[in-house]
Amino acid sequence: MAPVWAAAVTLTACHPPAHSSDAASRSAAPAIDWNAALRDADPQTGKVVASRCTACHSLEPDGANGVGPPLWGIVGGKVGAARDFPYSVALRLFAIKSPTWTYEALSNYIAAPQETVPGTKMTFYGIKNDRDRIRLIAYLQTLRPSPAGEGAPPPDKP
Q1: Which CATH number fits the domain that encloses residue 40?
Q2: I want to staple 70 with a disulfide (CB 3.0 to 4.6 A). Which of 2, 63, 131, 142 is the partner?
């Protein structure tokens, strides 16, 4: 039997609220200081948050495509670069203007995939909580062959 939170995540992923001011509140929110945020974030707590991702994504090196592409090496990686994954036209166009998964780009996408990349195939409602997203990104940053932080994108500039 699936945990209760799994049902809640599934329901919100499939049925987001009809009226949402999340985009407006996110754009009005202060920018995240990624150096400080990631220094203070616990990647192991982020691993718990990442369990939401595993329904559609692999977190393993050389992971297979699933409903979504594998997430190994995504932090600082190229947008839309998973081999043989059928990305939406919307995400391929997004990759032209934002070619790298910076902390800020990932945070925005994870918060509201459909608002960040209208037309994306990713139907997940998003993770609205800033602290959970920061923890998730801290964990995703460890999914690389080199030590965490090495080769990661520089913090986004204001």
Answers
A1: 1.10.760.10
A2: 63
